[in-house]
Amino acid sequence: MDAKTSDTIDSSLDATATPAEQQPSVRRRAQLKPEAAAAPSSSLAAAAASATASTKMRGNSPNSSPLLQQQREDDAQSSDDDIRSARLARTSSMPRLLRSETSRELNNILNNTHYGPIKWMLLVVPVAILAGVVSPPSPLSFFLNFLALLPLSALSILTILVLTKNAGVSGGVLRAVFGNITELALSITALFHGISRLVLQITIGSTLIYSLFVLGGCFLCASFGKRDAEFSKSRTSLMSSLIMVTTFCLSIPTAMSRSGKGGVQIPIVGSLGKHEETLVLSHLTAVVLSFLFLAYIAFRFLTHDQFFPRNPNAMQFNVSGRAPSLPAGRTQEASVLTLIAVLVTSISCTGLCANFVIVSIKPTVDTLHVTQSFIGLVVLPLTASFAKSVTIIRHARSDNNTVVTERMSKLDFAIRSVMTNVLDTLLFIMPMLVLIGWVAHRPMVLLFELFEVVVFVLAIIIMSYLVQHGKTTYFEGCMLMGSYLSIVAAFYVRPESAGSIASAYIPF
């Protein structure tokens, strides 16, 4: 076929086709030989006349348009079938494990935006456990297990939030327990190793992080670049009052012991002596605070839940985004079983890593020339609260896309999260540890050193004062974070007292 004939055919097709159908013809003409562009004008005129005649003939045919439409639909259907066949071919070539429902759920958990950035640190977990098993306690074992606790803590928190996202009272209790599983594992391990003072230091350190550093980070993130950031002072004052009452109750045993002669010393088993009354008072205080925690849970989730609306900007994790071939009941059952398996595995690994961290504290202190108070008040609480702290600060700033519920901003929910974690530590974890020690014959007395209790009480007072105003600026956030860093520096340079060293490891 010569160039003239080809040009005539293309012109006739262009005249009868739609713009989308004309593009292949244009491309074909662009690919013709250069001599085709120099064809005589008479042939072009003839092609145009032929195209006009063809258009009239096809326009007069009543069945031409339906046939063309049917051909287009057939072409589109065949294209969809080809794409579907290609996807099935790729899926059939994948390993069976990657196509399972369990692997999909695990992949959703690990790729979640709240957990994804540190998921690669899970590779440290088996290395840390192996180092703790095959080698004696050492700074290396402490460091590896310290790093392993960071992703394990985030994984436990994410899993329990997904499992209890629609639960009420039971969900609040489960989140208080398993949402703080790293702190509980470290404290219980220290308690059963006879380091009761370290238990108190871990709980105080967690309270200082949330009440000063995390709250300051929320103020800074929410108000930076703005004149100020507003929040609901009526809701925050309710929770801050409960925190103040709890702090007062926990400080009573120390105040009573300090009021006697000879100062305060951490008692050891079999030689409680004058501290026997303080131990009884600690047990009674723990019982009272436990009932107060249950009353708080009922108040929050049953009787006055209107004061605690759900956060519409919080993480929405879809656990049922799987293949539609499974029945709905089986899909939900599979997701719950998978999440429970993940939670049990993370708790088991957390317990092992926490044990290796505790037994490695003494050689780490001797090697790095730091005090045990610095390890207990700064390093270990950072392990337990790192994941939640970063998440709270990141989501404290409101933007144009923020969903507001009953005039509550993202800063309101961030402040509420800070106070909830403080209450979980003071109102639930600390009394529960005292009761566990009571049942297991590991006496844990609520006796703090003078410097620790002063810093602890002042931090709670500062937090309660700043949340009463209803608005904040970035400068208040800088002040809170600077206060925490000053306290960290004080704990670092402060020498260990002789009484503290003598009572650090209590023999059983």
TrEMBL record:
Sodium/calcium exchanger membrane region domain sequence ranges: 142-301, 339-492
The family this protein is said to belong to: Belongs to the Ca(2+):cation antiporter (CaCA) (TC 2.A.19) family.
GO terms of biological process kind: intracellular calcium ion homeostasis
Principal location listed in the UniProt entry: membrane
Compositional bias (Basic and acidic residues): 71-82
Name under which the protein is recorded: Sodium/calcium exchanger membrane region domain-containing protein
Keywords: Ion transport, Membrane, Transmembrane, Transmembrane helix, Transport
